Write the structure tokens for this entry.
Amino acid sequence: MDEINLHYRFMNWRRRIREVRAVRYRERFKRMMRDGEVLSYQGNSDEVGCYVAPRPLSKGNSYFEVTIIDTGVRGMIAVGLVPQYYKLDHQPGWLPHSLAYHADDGKLYNGNTIGQQFGPKCNRGDRIGCGIYLEAFEDGQTTVFFTKNGKEVGTVVVPASPEALYPAVGMHSLGEEVQLDLQAEWGMAKEDGLMIVDSHEDEWGRLHDVRVTGSLLEYVGKGKSIVDVGLAQARLPLNTRCHYYELEITDAGEKCYIALGLARRDYPKNRHPGWSRGSIAYHADDGKLFQGSGVGDAFGPRCFEGDVMGCGIMFPRDYILDSGDDSDDGDSELWPKQRRVQNELYMNDEDEEKDGEELEGEQEGRKVGVRDSFVYISKPSNRARASAL
């Protein structure tokens, strides 16, 4: 009889152990729906939705990533680390012992509802990563780092052990949707000696609904209305030593709504180049030239997949660089004080003897007068050489 009682007691003990383990390693989420690896917000935008992973970060799995599929109404998506039993009606980072990188404002929230400026804002198509440096923790201090599109944004030291940090995602507006990767790897390609492709994202001053992959620009917006425009604007303006650029259409999409041109630094992000004041652009879909107006003028042929479009500035020989041009403080050496500069376009004596019509004929393009310079826009029949200008 005692043996039977002992057996039942042993079975009850095993059952309780299984129940405790099941609760311990169960993911928790509120006002969210999970479909495979996709998390989507299911609240009414007045309430926070939060997801907490079933297991904390560890030596074998010290990093995770979230890819923004849709920013929804406000893009209030947070990615970070929280305690296991974090309150699911609060964004990660708002409560003590939690921290998170918020996509809508680029701020870091570290146990407080008031964030600190930390990194760039994140949009549709961006990947936000979060991990811990296992070799950099001692005396209850852990170094947490965040990434955007595979590049480290910054680090922060928090008073916690790695075993207490659970991956978490927060959302707070209709339409928000992300893809979760709890098995993501960080820095493996570099350690294994594999080829790493430069994203070239640093070359762009502004990216709106455009994703950069190497030298490829991809529109990731909705494309449902006239304001769903993607914009990629270079960090530096054209100048006398870099006065031409071009692109190749690798995929024309549904209607080839691709525009190439020049725009002022603060150009609206939801307007095609050429549509608003302070811009000029050649539009591939209709071959028209738009100069600060929503109405274009017939200019050149339409462009299709495989075509190469180019744009440059033909500076006058006596062009004087204006020291008042906008430029980044870190690039002040590119913008010296007012002085005469030599235009490389005219450095060859033979080129100086050619008149404008001959030069224009060689480039198979057209030029448009803008103030004291010429904007040169070309559409070669086959791939042009950038060195030609």
Q: What stands out?
A: The longest helix spans residues 2-24. The chain is about 10% helix and 35% strand. The chain has two domains: 8-181, 192-318+364-383.
